[in-house]
Structure formats: structure tokens, C-alpha cells
Amino acid sequence: MVFKLVTVFVVPLATMVLAATPGPYHAPPTPYAPHHPGPVYPKHHQAPPHHPAPHAPQGYCDPKAPPKCAHHSDLPFCLEDPEYPEYEIANKISQDPIFEKKYSDVPDQSADDLVEHISEYQEDAFNYAYYTGASKGHSPFDLSHWAGPEGYLCPSQVDYAKIKRAVNVEGYWRIILQHAPKEYGYASYNYTQTTRLETCLTPDSACRLIAPCYNSKCTQKYVYHRMVSVDPCDLYRGFFIDTYKLPSACSCHVPH
Predict the structure, then answer these.
(1) How is the chain classified by DSSP, letter by letter?
(2) Keywords, A to Z (predicted)?
(3) Could you give the 3-state DSSP secondary structure of residue 173?
């Protein structure tokens, strides 16, 4: 009888389980590539975002904005106006047959009619050159300061003007109705509004021929005028009466 020897190896269960559990995954190594830095482009400073300032709607008309005739003047009125709407005004006047009877004017005005004891010739001579030409000293209180043979205590400029535009008492610019017909074929409609303007040549200065001890001062006076007007922002509104504060006199004031 022959016996065969069989060798049996006993492996622990824990070892078998450990051998069956897969290990952590490792990605295959990537092929080596040499490092070459990319191109460097110059950086430009980006401009800040542009936020446009708020603006008026297209076609908006600001009634308080000074017109072109007042761009180089601090006066609240214009005696000349390159943008004066003559044609529109002439057309409006022609549609009212009794317009001139409703709004009559005294076109010929002068000192002969409005200033007692002073003629038009005398008043026209009382200008800036007349008063300053008589002064022989540098001080405004010099004995010869503004010492002409005659004149006002406070030098002033007088104009019998036909104002084209003016600021009303509310601060709005208005077109003043002044129609001297030219080439528009409305020869029978000649309507004007004449205003006497007297403006101090040297406001707040000492009055001439008054002793310095009185502390006199030239003061500008104003008067309210009501004139037929047109709204430059709405010509189709038609004519209306508006009120304006205009210089009327230059007086000498002596305080207590």
C-alpha cells in the first residue's frame, strides 16, 4: 500500500481579503514637457466707465438761459438781437387789424418832453466823457472831480431805447415786441415800445460837488415797466403783457 503525502497550506482569511482589495489609483505619469513661459503682453490701463452728464431732452428750451445777445453783457436786457424773430412777429401783427390801436406807443421821446429845465441837447452831452473830462485830480473827492459847468450830481447814461429782449420779474427771458418792418411786406404795421433807461455810470461812488464829510453815494433807481412780449420758447403762444424791472434814475443819497 502506497501513501501520498499531500501538503496543505492554510492562509488566514484576513490575508486573503487584504490581497483582494485593490490599492489606491495612480494615474500614469505624463510625459515630461519643458516649461516655456507664455508671451507677456503690455497691460493698458482701462479707462474708467463714461457716465454722460444728464442733459435736457432734445429740443428743450430753457426760458432762464441767457440768449446770444446777452452772452457778453451783465445787463438784464438787449438793445440788439441777431436772433430776433421779425418775420413771426410781423405775421402776428398783420392778423390783428386793430393791434396798434390797442397798444399805442410814443416813439419820439426825449428830455424836451420828460425832463424839466433840461433840453435834449443838454442831456445828450451829459455822458461819461463830459464828467470825467472835467476832473483834474486822482482822488474822487478832489475839488475838480466831475466839476463841469452843469450836470447831475450823479453821472448817468440815458437811452431812449427800444429793447429787443429782457428778463422779466420772475427771471425769464422774453422777446419784447419791436417791429420796424423791412423786407417782409408789412409796411403798414410799425409797432414799437420806447423806454427811457437811465443807468448810473459810477454806482455807489461819491456824488459830485458834495463835501466828503457827508458820505454821499450815487444810488441806482428802478421802475417796473409793462410791455407786450413774446415767449421765445413758445412763439405760438402769441402776445401777452409782462413786467420788467429796468433802471430809471441815478440819485444822490446822503445818509444820516
Answers:
(1) --------PPPPHHHHHHHHS-----PPPPPP----PPP-PPPPPPPPPP-PPP-PPTT---TTS--GGGTT--SSEES--TT--HHHHHHHHHT-TTHHHHS-------HHHHSTT--HHHHHH-SHHHHHTT--SSSTTSTTTT--SS--SS-EEEEEE--SEEEBTTS-EEEE--B---SSS-TT--B---EEEEEESSTTSPPTTS-GGG--EEEEEEEEEEEEEE-TT-GGG--EEEEEEEEEEEEEE---
(2) Disulfide bond, Glycoprotein, Signal
(3) strand
Rounded-to-integer distance, Cα 131 and Cα 114, Å? 22
Domains of the chain listed by start with CATH number: 68-253 (2.10.90.10)
Dihedral of alpha carbons 238, 239, 241, 245, sign: positive
**Grid cell of 146 as nine digits:** 466831475
pLDDT in tens, 170-213: 999 999 998 766 555 555 557 889 999 999 988 998 888 888 88
Which amino acid belongs to residue 202? Answer: T
